[in-house]
Amino acid sequence: MIPAMRDTRGRESKTLTFVAISWAALVAKFLAAGVDLGALGKQPPMSGTEFGSAVSVVLLIWLGREWTEKRKPEAPASGGKND
């Protein structure tokens, strides 16, 4: 089971967890680009354009989730029609 982070609404969000892990992996890859890591060999270079494109895709996933959450109809506060 994938652990889920809580979003600003207090609900669990697997998407936010995915975005956070992806963001950390992209930053680590960008920082390690072109560096010789011994047993792992020399890492291929990563330009700012490639980094920006990858970050944009990850952010689009998060923004898409937020957009779909905003479009969902709100449930009644009491949960019933006959109050």
Explained architecture:
There is one protein chain. The chain has 2 helices and 2 strands. The protein has helices at about 15-30, 50-70; strands at about 5, 10-15. A two-stranded antiparallel ribbon has the order 1-2. A hairpin with a 5-residue loop joins strand 1 and strand 2 (about 10-15). The longest helix has 24 residues, at about 50-70.
Number of strands: 2
Sheet/helix structural class: mainly alpha
**Overall number of structural domains:** 1
- How do the helices and strands follow one another from N- to C-terminus? EEHH
* Beta-strand proportion: under 5%
Biggest sheet record: 2 strands, antiparallel
Radius of gyration: 19 Å
Share in helix: 40-55%
Q: How far apart are the termini?
A: 39 Å
Strand order within the widest beta sheet: 1-2
Give the helix tally: 2
C-alpha geometry: elongated
Low-confidence stretches: none
Average pLDDT rating: 79
